[in-house]
Amino acid sequence: MKRTILTIGLVAVLALAAQADTQYYRDLEMKDVACWEDVLHAGYILHTGKNEQKTFEEYRAYAIEHELISESWEIAADAPISKGKLAYVVVAALDIKGGIWLNLLGNNTRYAYRECLHQGLMGKASQHRYIGGKELLSVLRRGMEYRRANNPE
Fold first, then answer.
1. Residue 97 pLDDT more than 90?
2. pTM for this structure?
3. How far apart are the first and last CA of the chain?
4. Residue 144, burial from CB neighbour count under 10 angstroms (0-12, 13-18, 19+)
5. Which helix (H) or strand (E) holds 124?
């Protein structure tokens, strides 16, 4: 009897943990416009391969430390994000070397966006347009595929 209760309890704990792991994705899918907190979480996932729950400030500190964003950027957790800024984070997180302009000028929103288009990581639209939750999920999925194909561990 105790073993059955223990097994049921363990299954319940694992189910709750799995639900917590997927909560980010389910919440993101419902958003009309993704925000910086969503993008920094996605950048963390792309860079580390891990979906760990952290605060916005922890994601921001990680992103600055690993140069996924510029330290000079003034960002707020709930502020919407453009495709160009997302592209900057994606290129940095995946360590995409890019073409001549990205190499010559360094990571910037314009050429990062062009590189993401070239790699098939993003759909075509203005780099200044805000990105939606479903679109961010698509970029995250494609980014993880890129990561697996280009960074075998």
1. no
2. 0.81
3. 43
4. middle
5. none
